[in-house]
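Dear Dr. H.,

I hope your travels went smoothly. While you were away I took the liberty of generating a structure for the chain from your last submission, since the lab meeting agenda had it listed for discussion. I wanted you to have the full record in hand beforehand rather than looking at slides cold. The sequence, exactly as received, is reproduced here:
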Amino acid sequence: MPALTLREILALDPVRAAEPELLAGHTALDRPVRWVHSSEVYEGANFLDGGELLLTNGFGLMDAADEVRRRYVRELASRGVAGLAVEVGRSLPAMPAEVVDEARRRELPLLAMHRVVPFVRITEAANRAIVARGLSGRAVVRPWGDDHTAALLADLADRAALNQPEVEARAALAGFHPGPGARLVGVSLHGTREVGTVDRAVRLLGGAGVLRAAFPGDVLALLSLPGARPGDPVKAVQEVFRTAAGPGLTVAVGHAVSASQGGWLRWSDTLRAARTTLELALTVPAAEPGVPDGPLVTSSRALALERELTRGGLDANRERLSALVHHTLGPLLTWEASHSSDLVRTLETHLRNGCSPTRTAALLHIGRQSLYQRLERIETLLGLDINDSDLLGELLTATCAHRLVERPSGARPATTAPHFKRTA
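The corresponding predicted structure, in token form, is as follows:
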């Protein structure tokens, strides 16, 4: 991976907080930055090795003669520094015109830092990011070329060898700046190669930030919702996608994570949860019918049991799940083999909806009396009271496993979630 550039350094939060204004060197922002340090020694250019971003409070420039200021800039440029950042407004009221002019002549990036931010915060964040980039260098096969957003999302979804400074720098370069207390939610879409659906959803959310990119056959996004936003962020994201997504699209929403707690691994977790949930939504029958002629919008929490039961792959768990199904639901399976009934599905729907007869009957499109007859039949065959709280977990797990391993008619054709291929 290439070295961190001056452009990426400028995107770091501590640097942005200083409100930098680029006065010269606009064409040199992609210079690699070897190190960032501060110095008030104005005769110290000979101690520089090149590639540094130099920070100074400008005190030594305030009373210097015009030619001394110009010579200072020339010496820095001759040493090959990546840029000069000068704090203005405190020791130095404004950037001297001679400094600006000489920097432009030498095509040296010159920054005026308009707000006071302790240099130690800037150097710590920048140098950690530089070291992180060097440690995580790797060869990657990317069909998306120089698309920084796609590359970052792919690395996060693949849980590549990253760390926090690098992730923050790359996210900032892509214009993604989660605020204090922000909640991040990963989203994976199938059925489109355009990001327009995500953009519409973000507009409906209002005030949300987003990283999004289209991959072959799928779109991956990481949404940032303000911490002050009330309500459940996962539900909010699901609702806007039900409006924004068109018929035939499948949308999987990951869980909500804190942007500031747990670091980039939490960012990765919600994207991976969305991707895993999308794959399940496309390959196993839904527990409940979707909205006719509308998108299928689901979430990692809605398919939490399915994700746990298939951890490591469905084929690897098939024998174990089949044994669980036959041990728990054997009498129902025997009955259904010789009768036209839907008892297992009825039981799962009933359990998933809090054993509410009204909700269950509505979802199954049957009358309440027919539902009561089915439930009575189920209890008779199993010899159990399905409202016994000790049995709810076992029965729900078994009915879910049955749907996974039996693959009744109506299952969607198998497909795969986005795959980001890399080499060592």
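Two observations you may find useful: The first strand starts at residue 20 and ends at 24. The beta strands are 20-24, 35-38, 52-56, 83-87, 110-113, 183-190, 209-215, 218-225, 250-258, 296-299.

With kind regards,
E. W.
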